[in-house]
Design brief:
Structural class: alpha/beta
Distance between the termini: 38 Å
Strand order of the largest sheet: 15-28-29-30-26-27-16
Largest sheet: 7 strands, mixed
Number of helices: 13
Shape: elongated
Strand content: 15-25%
Mean pLDDT: 95
Number of strands: 30
Helix content: 10-25%
Length: 598
RNA sequence: UGCCCGAUGGUGUAACGGUAGCACAGCAGACUCUGGAUCUGUUUGUCAUGGUUCAAAUCCAUGUCGGGCAGCCA
C-alpha cells in the first residue's frame, strides 16, 4: 500500500520544547527515546499516540527510539504479545521513522564498559544496515536481569535497600495511606551483610513466593507513597517467556524501568501521567547508584481518551475473552491490528497523533478527528469502484437481451494518474435500495416513479414501472435508458439532480460485506464504572451480501477502495479466495441522512 | 482530607508579559455525472476572586472544579 507522505508540519509541544532545551543547554550528544510496552496485550491507538511521539522526537533530532519489551512480570506476559507488538510498531512507523527504530542484534546483552574511568554497563541499538535486518530484535528489560541484580546488590551494600520479611498484608498495612504516614518495617535495619546473604538466597530459590521482598530504604513518612520503602524485587517461582527458568526473583517496574533506560542510553523517558508520582523514585534510584553516564529524564503526558472507545488493556482483553469481538484484531477494536484490518492506513494514525497534540490535560478526543484523518487519506488514495450493498433490480427495457454498452469510469478523480476503466451496462442492473423511493420526502433527488436519475458513468434512466410481488415488495424497476446522454453523445450534458451507482447484473460478482460501526453507544463507555455490556452497540457489525463490479475480483487486502457514494472498503485479511469478504473502513460523509434526520 | 498534576469556544490544541489563532464539529452558501471531494462565509472561548504591571490566558496568592497516587501490576 502506498501511504501518503507524512504531513510536512513539524509538531511542537511542551515535551519537544524540553528536549530542545536539553540539546541547547549542551551535554547531550544525541537523543534517545524509547517505546516500552509490556507484552501483556495488543497495542491500541493510545499506544499509537505514544509511538508517534517517541519516534517523532527521535526522527526530528536524528536520534533513535528503542522498542523495548517491559517484561518484568512473567505471570502476565506472553510471546504472542511480543510478536504482535513488534509487527504493529513496524507497520505504524514504516516509511516514516523506520530509520530511527532502535533494535538490537538478536541475543545481544549489555556489555561491561568503561565510562570515563568508571565501570559501566551499556547496550546500544544495532546500526541499521549493518548486518542482516532479520537478525535484529526488540530490546527486552528481561535481558538486563543480571545487571539489575548487580545494581540491587550495590544498593544493599550502600545501605539503601534491605530484605523485608513482612507478608503482603503486613506490607500493605505498614505503608499507611496517602493522608497517614507509614510505619517502618522491623526488618529495615538489618546489616548489609545480612541483607546481601538474604537477597542472594532469594535469588537462589530458597524462599517461597511472597515470603520476602527487597525494598528500597527511603522514607516511610514521605507524603509520596511511592517513596515509602518501595518494593524493588519480589519472589515469583514462574517461568518467563524470554528468560525461561533462569530467575525466581523479578524486579518491579520502578526499579527496572529507570535502569533499563540508563542501560540503553535513553535521554528522554516519556510516559503517561499516572507515572508522575513515580518520578521522584525514578530519580532516586538512578542517583543512588552513582552511575557513570548522564541520567535519563522522565517526562509525562496525558494518555489518549477517544470517544466511543475503551482504551484499557484489561477491558480490551475482556472484549476478546468474552467473545464480544472475534479477537484482538477484530476490525471494531481500537487496537492497531484491528484498525489495520479495518483498512485504516498507518499514515492516518500518524496524522491523527499529530493533530491531537501532546499536553498534560486529560481530555476526551472527538472520534470525528480520527474519522476525518482516515477519510482525508483514503479520499486521496482509494480507487473508486461500483458496488451495490442492498440491491434492487432495474430492467432497462430499451436495451436488448445480451447487449452490452461500454462505459468509461474514472478510477480516482483526486488522482488523474490512476486512469480509467471500462464498466458495462446491460439490460439488467442492480441499484441501491435506498436510491429508489416510491413516495420520497421533499428534496429527495434520486429515482422515483416517473422520475429520472443518472447511472453514473452511463446514462440517464427514467422509471416507467414498478413491478411488485404478491406481498407488495418491489421486484424490479422497469426503466427507459436514454443512451443519448452517455459521455460523448449529444445529450451528455443534460442535467439531472443525482447520479447513482450501479452494477451490471450480467457482470456482477458476489461478496460478503461487513459494515462496521462504533462498538459502544456511549461516548464514554467507561464512565462511572458502568458495565461495558450495557453500552454495546448491537449494530456494530452488519453483514450484507453485495454485488460488486468484476474488477474487484482481483483485490488484495492491501488495496484501498471507495465504493462510490458508500464509503471506503478493503478486502478482509482473512478473506478466502472463493469467498470474498470486504470490510467497510468508514462510510462517506452523508449530509443527506443528516439533513433528513435533523 | 496528605501529596502531585491540570483548567483557553461544543471538542482538542496554539499564543512563552504586548492584536486570543488553528483544527475538528456546527451553521449558511457555491460548485459537482459521488447528497463525496473542493471552495467561500460564519456562530461560540481564557474557571473564579484578588494582587503585581503601562500592559496578564501568561507572573503571584487564595478559592473552585477535574485527574492521578495507598499492587509483591505496568
Amino acid at each position: 500500500m502506498s501511504d501518503t507522505p507524512a504531513s510536512p508540519a513539524v509538531p511542537s509541544d511542551f515535551i519537544r520544547d524540553m528536549v530542545t532545551d536539553d540539546i541547547n543547554s549542551g551535554g547531550l550528544r544525541s537523543i534517545v527515546t524509547r517505546f516500552p510496552p509490556e507484552p501483556n496485550g495488543y497495542l491500541h491507538i493510545g499506544h499509537a499516540k505514544s509511538i508517534c511521539l517517541n519516534f517523532g522526537i527521535a526522527r526530528e533530532n536524528h536520534g533513535r527510539c528503542n522498542l523495548r519489551m517491559d517484561d518484568t512480570n512473567p505471570t502476565k506476559e506472553d510471546m504472542e504479545y511480543v510478536e504482535s507488538i513488534e509487527a504493529d510498531v513496524r507497520w505504524l512507523v514504516a516509511g516514516w521513522a523506520d530509520q530511527v527504530l532502535g533494535l538490537k542484534r538478536r541475543g545481544a546483552v549489555p556489555v561491561q564498559a568503561d565510562a570515563g574511568g568508571r565501570p559501566d554497563t551499556h547496550l546500544a541499538a544495532a546500526i541499521p544496515g549493518s548486518g542482516a535486518r532479520h537478525q535484529l530484535e526488540p530490546f527486552f528489560a528481561s535481558d538486563y536481569f543480571p545487571q539489575l541484580f548487580e545494581f540491587a546488590v550495590r544498593l544493599v551494600e550502600k545501605g539503601l535497600a534491605y530484605v523485608c520479611d513482612l507478608s503482603p498484608e503486613e506490607t500493605d498495612q505498614y505503608r499507611g495511606a496517602p493522608d497517614r504516614p507509614g510505619k517502618e518495617s522491623p526488618f529495615r535495619n538489618r546489616t548489609a551483610a545480612e541483607n546481601l546473604d538474604l537477597f542472594r538466597r532469594m535469588r537462589a530459590g530458597e524462599f517461597p513466593d511472597g515470603s520476602r521482598t527487597l525494598r528500597a530504604r527511603i522514607d516511610m513518612a514521605s507524603p509520596n507513597v511511592w517513596l515509602r520503602d518501595p518494593i524493588l524485587y519480589r519472589i515469583r517461582h514462574a517461568e518467563h517467556h524470554h528468560t525461561g527458568k533462569s530467575w525466581c526473583i523479578y524486579p518491579m517496574y520502578d526499579f527496572a524501568h529507570c535502569l533499563s533506560d540508563y542501560i540503553e542510553g535513553v535521554t528522554h523517558s516519556i510516559c503517561t501521567l499516572e507515572f508522575e508520582v513515580h518520578r521522584p523514585l525514578y530519580d532516586w534510584i538512578l542517583k543512588s547508584l552513582d552511575l557513570a553516564r548522564p541520567l535519563p529524564r522522565q517526562i509525562e503526558f496525558a494518555r489518549l481518551n477517544l470517544g466511543y472507545t475503551v482504551m484499557s488493556k484489561r477491558k480490551l482483553l475482556q472484549l476478546v475473552a468474552e467473545r464480544v469481538v472475534t479477537g484482538w484484531d477484530d476490525p471494531r477494536m481500537p487496537t492497531i491490528s484491528g484498525l489495520r484490518r479495518r483498512g485504516v492506513p498507518a499514515s492516518s494514525l500518524r496524522e491523527f497523533a499529530r493533530q491531537i497534540g501532546v499536553t498534560k490535560f486529560n481530555g476526551l478526543t472527538d472520534v470525528a478527528v480520527l474519522e476525518k484523518c482516515i477519510r482525508d487519506d483514503l479520499n486521496r488514495l482509494a480507487l473508486r469502484r461500483l458496488a451495490v450493498l442492498r440491491p434492487v433490480k432495474v430492467v432497462l427495457t430499451n436495451i436488448g437481451m445480451g447487449d452490452s454498452v461500454a462505459c468509461e469510469a474514472v478510477n480516482n478523480p483526486e488522482d488523474p494518474a490512476s486512469g480509467h476503466r471500462t464498466v458495462h451496462l446491460t439490460r439488467e442492473a442492480w441499484i441501491e435500495h435506498e436510491d429508489f423511493m416510491e413516495n420520497p420526502p421533499p428534496k429527495y433527488f434520486r429515482l422515483r416513479p416517473g422520475g429520472e436519475v443518472r447511472l453514473k458513468y452511463a446514462c440517464i434512466i427514467r422509471c416507467d414501472e414498478v413491478v411488485r410481488d404478491a406481498s407488495g415488495a418491489v421486484l424490479e424497476l422497469r426503466c427507459f435508458a436514454d443512451l443519448t446522454t452517455r459521455t460523448g453523445q449529444p445529450n451528455a450534458g443534460r442535467k439531472v439532480k443525482a447520479a447513482i451507482h450501479w452494477v451490471s447484473a450480467a457482470h456482477a460478482i458476489p461478496a460478503t460485506v461487513h459494515l462496521y460501526d462504533r462498538l459502544f453507544t456511549e461516548e464514554e463507555p467507561e464512565k462511572d464504572g458502568r458495565d461495558l455490556k450495557s453500552v454495546l452497540n448491537p449494530d456494530s457489525l452488519r453483514t450484507v451480501q453485495a454485488w460488486l463490479e468484476p474488477s474487484l475480483a482481483e483485490a488484495v487486502p492491501a488495496d484501498r477502495f471507495q465504493f462510490e457514494r458508500l464509503g471506503y472498503f478493503c478486502l478482509d485479511a482473512a478473506s478466502a479466495p472463493g469467498h470474498r469478504v470486504f470490510n467497510r473502513t468508514i462510510p462517506l460523509k452523508d449530509s443527506w441522512s443528516k439533513a433528513k434526520a435533523g
